[in-house]
Please model this.
Amino acid sequence: MDGIYFLVLLAFGALTGALLALCAALGANLPAGRGQVDDTPAAKHSASDRGL
Model:
């Protein structure tokens, strides 16, 4: 019975590692303008500035 738990833990670790590798591969291919936050004082963040 302990072997089943070990195999489940091993499979979970393998899936977690594969997901981490996939996220790292996809994150490395992002365009330069994506994923960056504009924290400059001139940035408009309120709804009225965006015309909402």
Notes: The mean pLDDT is 79. Residues 2-27 form the longest helix (26 residues). Residues 1 and 19 are 28 Å apart (CA to CA).
